[in-house]
Request: fold
Amino acid sequence: MFKSHMCGELRLAHVGQEVTLAGWVNLRRDFGGVIFIVLRDRAGLVQVVVSAETAPDARAVAADVRNEYVIQVRGMVRQRPADQVNVEWATGEVEVEAHEVQILNTAQTPPFYIYDDSPVDEALRLRYRYLDLRRRRMQRNIILRHRTVQFIREYLDQHGFLDIETPQLFKSTPEGARDYLVPSRVHPGKFYALPQSPQQLKQLLMVAGFERYYQIARCFRDEDLRGDRQPEFTQLDLEMSFVHRDDVLDLVEGLFTALVPAVTPEKRVLSPFPRLSHAEALARYGIDKPDLRFGMELVNLTDALAQSGFGVFSGAAQAGGQIKAIVAPGCADYARSEIDGLTEIVKRQGAKGLVTLAFRADGVKGPAVKFLSEGELADIAARTGAQTGDLVCIVAAEPAVVGAALSALRLTFRDRLALADPQLLAFGFVLDFPMFEWNAEEQRWDAAHHPFTMPRPNTYEAMIADPLAVLSDAYDLVCNGYELASGSIRVHDPKIQMDIFRVLGYPEDEARAKFGHMMEAFSYGAPPHGGMAPGIDRLVMLLAGENNIREVIAFPKTAQATDLMADTPAPVSARQLKELHIQLDL
Reply:
């Protein structure tokens, strides 16, 4: 071994011991007769002292050392003087007096500083990701990810789950996003698909009688990217037989309630997790993945203002829309430019404009005040609870636009006013989603979750006649404004499954061609079952306090789904294309 100890593990208990360390030079300071080296490895930092008086040969080698050189040091651990203790390091009370230094490898000058976490252009970080990963922030994040996954494995093992792998090459099926396709060399014109999730396979494992399965599963979706989405991602995939919805939710709540204090003791969790219906979440927060760390809930003013003389309100109500508001505390003195900024936010969500009422000491102010009666203003104040100094923001439009606009405003005020505790993880379950969504562009019904989701009890009978009347037995886990997991009780009855395909517009022969293996499996005694799939990337992002999942993935893609380090995607040779029977038409 090149080392007897990790750099970051040395403490006062090691004083007087001879140690061998190896790592990267974080910093080097030359004071003539003495050179100080901050040595770094995965475990942390430690100061190494190389003196010309006690170790002239080591001092001569250390003179040639530069940042990011890989070196080996042998020396004695000693206590640092009280006035030289570094309270920011775990090793700050000790240092190593070196008597031997060996250069194991040299290094070019890096394109950015590694010894601190100062901001670096993201493209540069991704181009030199192996260097970016040396920095303390990224090391902490990746180690946190390891600890999180390790805890999950141990927890589920204790609860009777089996870790079972499923294929990465499977069948292309409609599951909401585009598949990544893999051409078959030995079967010309045919393709595998990389799994968007192991949905069908985990259900087949329930048919196979394993009863409790999990997998840290790699999944692939060819969709537009954003801060919490990557083309390849990792999820905790779990499935359970002989369970109802609450059994799954209780298990997941128990897992996360135990996980957070174990891996991030500085974080807090609210327990029990609140459970909201999908309709309730939209009504109160305008979105089905609400941030529950603060209030500022939407207030429905539709019935109060439907007959208003202000045409913006009455027109929206008469067209079947809604009039809703949120209250921004202490923002009554916003300047015109700030109000214009808020208006742009709601317009990006499809709203035509924003009505603001500033409740000031000298009365209610705003362009719309002259169109509203005293009674209407008093009713708005009473319903919203607006106090002097508050700003009431109102949007009138179709319900989906109202919800999206006010939800975006709510999150804007959250960040501006620091309304959410950054150390709080406010988990919650959203339940009772619609079973189907109408696809106006293609004039057909789509599955709101996926086609293997069981309808809620007592709603299945209405499915064929009125798909909108059916609720699904699907559920989401949300946290701090993110969807962290989706799950459902699955269909296990082939008749119900075929009825769902019928609503989705699949002829029976097409349904059997795409899903015949599932239908056949269900005919051999499939147990009632359900599961959930929390996203590992988003979970670790929240635990680490990051705003982008790229910060917790070792080698992520850019927003354009490219790898700047390896320069992929990249062309392949004509010979490879010929072997796969592929001809390009660009």
The CA atoms of residues 296 and 410 lie 7 Å apart. The longest helix spans residues 136-158.
